[in-house]
Amino acid sequence: MNLYERNQKQRTFFNEKIDSYDDVHSTYMETKKTLGDNLDKNTKRILDLGVGTGLELIHVFELYPNAEVTVIDITENMLKELKKRIFADHVTTICGDFFEVEFGENYDAVISTSALHHFKIEEKIKLYKKIYDCLKENGQFINCDKIALTQEIEDGQLYELENNIENHKHIDTPLTIKHEIEVLKKVGFQEITSSEVDKKDYSLFKARKKM
Questions:
Q1: Which residues constitute the domain of residue 12?
Q2: What is the CATH number of the domain that holds 134?
Q3: Which residues of the chain have pLDDT under 50?
Q4: Segment holding 206, helix H or strand E
């Protein structure tokens, strides 16, 4: 199963989860708040990848009520729910595959949470280069995402993806912190940090575009 087919499978999976999504992901609100808390104070233009129903944007707009936010999500049902939120007028929505749609350019920050742990290393390199290119100089990439706590977990999830994808509706393929940082370095990011959050199998990654 190629990347496009896997992404369409993810689309179907999350479209079917719309009724329970907020209940499940509201338990991650403290994790999601780290995105807004770590934005530069002069942030105005933001791109959110895998926004879902926009839970992380609640805190972002509390801190930056005048922000201009573009969001990309492959799941139509999620974006329909996002458009019901009080800040929806400040959000431009794009429904599509991260690897297929245009991101735009000159963002102060790209943020994401619980969305990018579905890709293999070589796919992340391509995606993170696309993120790097859409940022302004000195722009931030802030990603709070699931991690593999051991190399054995990373290898095991990748094996499932490569060999048993047909038997799963949804497979997470998180990287170890070491490998996540290596990908960020490979595409040119600097000032890369990883820090703990309230979920032990999550980490907050911050990186900056320096010319």
A1: 3-208
A2: 3.40.50.150
A3: none
A4: strand 202-208
